[in-house]
Design goal:
By secondary structure, the chain is an alpha/beta fold. The protein has ten helices and 15 strands. It has a single domain, classed as Rossmann fold, CATH 3.40.50. The structure holds adenosine-5'-triphosphate. GO terms for molecular function: ATP binding; ATP hydrolysis activity. Pfam families: ABC_tran.
Length: about 290
């Protein structure tokens, strides 16, 4: 189990995480929250890349107090942005995921190379193996970095916005591949699409203003009320062919709830007094 307890973090005195606490104990979990909510910061603190105040334990072990190399065997982190300036081949970049296990004097062994190949194959990237990483498109680079995380393995895999830059099909490929990895592991992803969280994740953690305000099973958490509160805009959940689909809302009951929650401004039609627009900060919904 991953347990995050009362985690605080500030950048130059500006608080970003404000006592984040949650338990995560199976499958794929999703951090959902608006831009700037602190999702990447939280992931980096869990991975020990940023030094927050608080406690992070993985199966009872205090990961923040572990030596870096030991932590890298337990936790792999795939960042939102990555820069590789030397023109390493795709295969070499993926093989680097094995670094925590490699004896620096001997270099990677056969088993490491095999794992790197398998990781490329899982994501359908074997054909890119000899290409220089620096010459790939943004989406291809994203896929290669995911392959690297898969090669690194570990008990907890963190993927920060794994679907960014990816086309419609590859978003599905990546989320399916991530889901396949969950046996015996905990996987935490950050996403921007609540529909993807609903379809691919076992639990959801809503992060707002640096703390988790609700968490649990997607069906329980991804409600119009919670999502309207999270994104400060009307949100509806509708049924299409038996599937729940989350859409920006225009339903009046949702609007009224949202107005109360977000202190929105509404515009009424002068004659009918019908609500025609609901404005909250920078977002607005026309009816
Ligand atoms: N290196 C940094 N120095 C100073 N402030 C930072 C730094 N990185 C992030 N921040 C700030 O911390 C806050 C949280 O950023 P973070 O990247 O964790 O949010 P996020 O939820 O991942 O956002 P997004 O969905 O846009 O990626 C933001 O206000 C951001 O401006």
């Amino acid at each position: 189990m991953l347990r995050v307890k009362n985690l605080w973090f500030s950048y130059n005195g500006r608080r970003v995480l404000r006592g984040v606490s949650f338990d995560f104990n199976e499958g794929v979990g999703c951090l959902l929250g608006p831009n700037g909510a602190g999702k990447s910061t939280l992931m980096k603190c869990i991975a020990g890349i940023l030094k927050g105040e608080g406690k992070v334990t993985l199966d009872g072990r205090d990961v923040l107090k572990m030596p870096e190399r030991e932590r890298a065997k337990l936790i792999s982190y795939s960042p939102q942005e990555f820069s590789v300036s030397f023109p390493y081949t795709v295969f070499e970049v993926v093989l680097m995921g094995r670094n925590p296990y490699v004896n620096p004097l001997r270099g990677p062994g056969e088993e490491d190379e095999e794992l790197a190949w398998k990781s490329l194959e899982v994501l359908g990237l074997a054909e890119l193996a000899e290409r220089p990483f620096t010459e790939l498109s943004g989406g291809q680079k994203r896929l290669v970095m995911l392959a690297r995380s898969i090669a690194q393995g570990g008990r907890l895999l963190l993927f920060d916005e794994p679907t960014s830059f990816l086309d419609f099909r590859n978003q599905h490929v990546v989320l399916s591949a991530i889901r396949e990895l969950r046996r015996g592991r905990l996987i935490l992803v950050s996403l921007h699409d609540p529909n993807q969280a609903m379809a691919f994740c076992d639990s959801v953690f809503l992060l707002r203003s640096g703390s988790i305000f609700v968490s649990g099973r997607p069906q329980k958490v991804l409600t119009p009320e919670n999502l309207s509160r999270l994104y400060k805009m009307p949100v509806e959940v509708i049924e299409v062919a038996g599937r729940r689909v989350i859409v920006p809302g225009a339903n009046k009951s949702v609007l009224l709830q949202t107005m109360l929650l977000t202190e929105s401004v509404i515009k009424l039609d002068a004659k009918s007094l019908e609500v025609v627009e609901c404005c909250s900060g920078e977002s607005s919904a026309k009816l």
